[in-house]
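Is aspartic acid placement plausible here? Inputs below.
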Amino acid sequence: MKVLKFGGTSVGSAASIRNVKNIISNQQGDKLLVLSAMSGVTNQLVELSELVKNRSSEEISERINRLQTKHFSLIDELITEEVSNKLIKKHISSELKALENDCQLDWNLEIDSKITTTGERLLTSIFSKYLEFESLGNTLLDAREFMHISNLENPDTGLVGELLNDSLKSAVGNEILITQGFVRLNSEKKISTLKRGGSDYTATILGAAIRASEIQIWTDISGLHNNDPRFVEQTHPVSQLSFEEAAELAYFGAKILHPQTISPVIGKNIPVYLKNTFTPEATGTCISAIAERKGLKAISAKDEITAIKIKSNRMLMAHGFLKRIFEVFDTYETSIDMITTSEIAISLTIDNTSNLDLILSELEQYGETSVDSNHSIICVVGEGLIEDRGTSKLFEILQDVPVRMISYGGSNNNISLLVDTRNKIEVLQKLNEKLFVNHLKPV
Ligand code: ADP
Ligand code: ASP
Ligand code: MG
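Reply from A.M.:
I modeled the complex. Tokens:
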């Protein structure tokens, strides 16, 4: 069985949904499809949830009507046969009625997740009916039955596999299974999400759960590019990456993949292919256990980073000092991304600031603390990178922009720089020139 995930733009219009149908039809064997909501819909649902939170009831029904119009016109374009057209519209109306009812309740995190995950349910039911209309038999599975993910960082894919098997008992002989990305049930068995962009993660969790032969992530670009194409011109797709390289790039901001996408498949050695729905013939990127080529591969950037410095004369050679500092972060379940130390100070970065005040008040007992917010980690990635002499060119960046921290040598395949977010685009562009355009000519 293969897992194929299609993102928001791939299912954003009738024309692209027809592309998706062709891509599926051209592939042999059993397939599990993971679909996102139509592009823009999750954003609209996030706004709707905000209205519910602020009790702006007049606007709510107008927003729900807008969603109905969008999905009804998609149905009209895709499913022209009258009976099927009416049936699926009836189903969409009942989903939207349930949404409206949720919007009447007092806002809490569960209501928020119920609202924001509606888009995937709407789209998957339309898509399933459309395939049926095109004579492609399929089974629609409700992800809420098996995406039981208590630990977001370390999902129990064995449990997901068992629950999915139960759901599959009703899937009589169909080659095509369809389910929703993004949604999960948390440790209290309440509806929650895998965070924004989470359908990629759904695909790899399910791929690991069923030990899929491969996972394909179909999006609007032909693979992972060597730099962020939203900010840098002249980027190009990287044809092959190791799991470790891809995991670093995803975690450090390459938006094409949800930060956690790679972790479920590393141990299971399941290849992940990144492909373009709009040019399916393009090679894209293959992510697998080996790095076919050593050296620099790509650069990414992760925003909303906060740097904390703890300065203490007492730290001098004091054993156990770092342990106590790390325990504070552990207590507040806040993970640390970058660390640098000197004799009298330690600097580290976090991306989750929800407990920042509590963390700072505890750290004060160990020394003087200072905080710099609005920073970005620029991550330069490639297997054996630090042995590559050409890479040293990246340090020329220090002449042009202030760099707050550097992490070099933590692993063979990553060098990270912490810069003020205001300088991020300039750094990405300059690194592109220094490392790719004027220097290395990667494949
Ligand atoms: P989907 O809706 O299919 O999940 P996303 O918008 O989440 O698609 O991800 C695809 C987008 O990621 C691309 O259109 C591109 O703008 C952006 N992106 C950012 N960094 C990279 C990168 N290094 N390589 C490719 N795409 C990237
Ligand atoms: N629809 C969700 C989002 O926009 C999940 C996804 O597309 O991956 O975040
Ligand atoms: Mg995405």
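Short version: Residues 7-10, 36, 197, 219-221, 224-225, 228-230, 254-256, 300 surround adenosine-5'-diphosphate (ligand 1) (CB under 6 Å).
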